[in-house]
């Protein structure tokens, strides 16, 4: 679906329809993780949303980067959809609740993962 822009974007002329991808807080287009997270939240797929966040960690993203460039960007995108009337109040509330649950599960998995890395493997060579 194309948007009719009230003010022309650089490089366009008046009255031309242009499509714009959602952008993050800094005007940078959303990355693939944020796009996939927002899509999975929209279809209310908790498992897929959680797997997006875990894949970012597996690709060695820092937690602060996941929070800023994936979670915050995806939730901002959902807020934009609500402000434009593309999500009802009920849908926005459901998606927001799901986003909170996914983030909590994500943090829980990170803590469990770190705890597993802290414990030495028992029964190794040199132990009695």
Give your account of this protein's structure.
By secondary structure, the chain is mainly alpha-helical. The protein has a single domain, classed as Methionine synthase domain (Methyltransferase, Methionine Synthase (B12-binding Domains), Chain A, domain 1). The chain has 4 helices and 2 strands. A two-stranded antiparallel ribbon has the order 1-2. Helix 1 crosses helix 3, helix 2 packs across helix 4 and helix 3 packs antiparallel against helix 4. The chain is globular and about 45 Å long. The N and C termini lie far apart (68 Å). 18% of the residues are buried. The N terminus is likely disordered.
Largest sheet: 2 strands, antiparallel
Into how many domains do the coordinates divide?
1
Would you report the number of β strands?
2
CATH architecture group name? Orthogonal Bundle
What's the layout of helices and strands?
Blueprint (H helix, E strand, L loop, with lengths): L2 E2 L12 E2 L13 H11 L3 H13 L4 H21 L5 H30 L10
Helix pairs in contact: 1-2, 1-3, 2-4, 3-4
């Amino acid at each position: 679906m194309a948007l009719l822009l009230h003010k022309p974007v650089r490089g366009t002329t008046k009255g031309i329809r242009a499509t714009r991808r959602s952008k993050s807080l800094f005007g940078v287009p959303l990355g693939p993780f944020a796009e996939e997270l927002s899509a999975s939240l929209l279809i209310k797929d908790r498992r897929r949303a959680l797997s997006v966040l875990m894949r970012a960690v597996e690709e060695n993203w820092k937690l602060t980067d996941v929070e800023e460039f994936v979670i915050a960007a995806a939730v901002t995108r959902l807020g934009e959809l609500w402000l434009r009337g593309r999500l009802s109040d009920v849908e926005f509330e459901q998606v927001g609740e799901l986003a909170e649950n996914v983030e909590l599960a994500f943090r829980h998995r990170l803590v469990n993962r770190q705890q597993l890395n802290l414990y030495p493997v028992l029964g190794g060579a040199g132990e009695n």
